[in-house]
Amino acid sequence: MKVYGKTMKKEKIKTTGQVEAENLNTFSGITKAFMDLAEKMGIPTPVITRTSAQYFFDFNSVKFKKDDFVEKVDFDFWIVEKY
Fold it and tell me: Scanning 10, 39, 56, 81, which has the fewest C-beta atoms within 10 Å of its C-beta?
């Protein structure tokens, strides 16, 4: 399954990326997919909670805001979707 991500700034897409992911029905599988996607896009990995992973599992999409990142980021939010 593919996982697609895009960073947004002022309602415009800044960067995009996608990775092939396996085992997206477990917390560790979702975490690995997010980490791989963030690395491919050249952005820091956000703090991934069980709640955000469950939201991704239930709705096939999750949105991380600036506050979800430990490092400073130059975008408003990161949207991750599976398709």
Answer: 10
